[in-house]
Amino acid sequence: MSERLSEKDRENLSKLTKEQIEEIIKDKMADAKVETEDKLTATIDEAMEELDRRTDKETNEKIMEISQYSDTVLEAVDKSHKEVTFMYSMLNDKHQATVDMTKKLAELQDTLVALDASVTRKLDLLKDKELEIEEELKQLDEKRAQVSAENEKVVEPEVPFTEALAQKFSEENHPIKANDNMEILALADTGLSEVEIAKKLGRGLGEVKFVLGLYKEG
Predict the structure, then answer these.
(1) What is the mean pLDDT of the chain?
(2) What is the mean pLDDT of residues 22-27?
(3) Which of 126-130, 147-151, 184-188 is the most confident on average?
(4) Residue 155: phi, psi to the nearest 5?
(5) Could you tell me if 215 and 185 are in contact, meaning their C-beta atoms sit under 8 angstroms apart?
(6) d(CA 101, CA 105)
């Protein structure tokens, strides 16, 4: 410090008392303190400004990153929503198709049940008709055998076809005896069918039906 002082300053300094020197030093120290505080404040302000700038920059970067991430998330959510909506629409279509198919199957089942019942009735009718035909064929075979046997015993003169047909018709439509009627009615009361009665009595199925029809009408 003495090297920086001029000769005049040193002379003036030598004239000062100790108290004066201390007072000058205190002033200088106060000035230095104020200057130091000012520089420190300025440095702190600059540092805070720099920190604010860096913070703002980082904050902006974070905000940009968050914004980009938010956009990505929103796009994914929108895509998922569209997929879910599409799947829900498909499920609705499938459900409606299933309901329609179930309805059609139910209608088809009803149709098949009705058709089965109709076929069963027709089969029963065909079976009854078959039994009637079998019975008539059996009776025809018996009559043929009887006629053949009678022809072997007695040779009858030839009869014209018209006369033979008239005679056969009159024989097949001969009056039915009361006892025969009672037998037919009695067997019918036991629960036998017309075919079973005809077989049991050896009578024609038409004859049995005729007697039972007269009985029902009476």
Answers:
(1) 77
(2) 79
(3) 184-188
(4) -90, 105
(5) yes
(6) 6
